[in-house]
Structure prediction request, 341 residues.
Amino acid sequence: MNLQYYKLNFTTPLHIGSNKPGFESSEEIIHSDTLFSAIINTWNKLYPQDMELFFNSQAGDEFVFPYFRLSSAFPYLESLLFFPRPLYRLNLPEDYEKEKPDLLKSLKDVKYISKDIFEKILNGKILNIDENNITEDGKFLLEPNQIEDTILFKKHDVPRILKDRFSNETTPFYFTRTHYNINSGLFFIAEFKSQEWQDKFEAILRLLGDTGIGGDRSVGHGLFEVKGPQNLDLDLDKTSNHFITLSLYHPNEKELESILKSASYQLMERKGWVFAKRSKPLRRQTVRMFTESSIFNGSPDNYGNTVRVLKAMPQQGLDNDVYRYGQTINLPIRLRGGANG
Prediction:
């Protein structure tokens, strides 16, 4: 694997919508399917001739997009990269259950783990940690000497009103904006088929940074500067027979037959609307996918596929099929006991 990562240093507030009803909350990460959609939509502006190559008539309901793969975008602070906490019990000393019950309780709230500790987890090493490894907000696990000034972002809820255009009745709601500190933001991992596709990708990513990602782009939200790429150097145990996902994952049928033994995962529904230029919004098919940090049996070479969620409807202004990205970047992980389950 030749994995590289890009940092997105946000210069304006970010809003990545979630599925919570009645409250326009914002995700803390950018899921891989959202990032892929934003990149493809921007790609269509700069290189429209590539769209037929990407999504030709032979693609069908499910296919593998071969030109690049993406992880979801996770927090970073300066040189510190944070990965999602694995959906698996951490490998801690045996006496912690009796000696440090409060620490075990605190660890349940941890969402992100620094690269150094994440590498230890990937290699099945015992973690000798305590409360000093957890940030004050309880979300981040890192080395104690890295703990200072680890406030990466703050969220602000802005009151808004939705007005019914027929009855003129108003409904109040809150719209969440995420403000990142100057030296923090989100990073994602990518792998490319060739240098040619990487060069195009980087041009698209810079353009996306100038036009914005997420909600409220029309008022300047979601703008970012791109830093990188840099090689992702990880000490990996390539003899492991389990892998951890760093993207949303939609496995094909063959993969699904083999990955679920001793698996640990969560499912997420991905749904939404398509806003075509010449029609009212169109609802996309709901897709269930495995979340980031899920752990499965098998090789990291399980990639998943990309799924058609809406067929072209020219009569309603939608000229092309719509797809949801379900391919993943995976890393090998050694489970407790050294035998990988």
Residues 195-211 form the longest helix (17 residues). Helices lie at 32-46, 51-54, 96-99, 101-107, 115-122, 195-211, 253-259, 336-340. Residues 240-341 form one domain. The two ends are 24 Å apart (CA to CA).
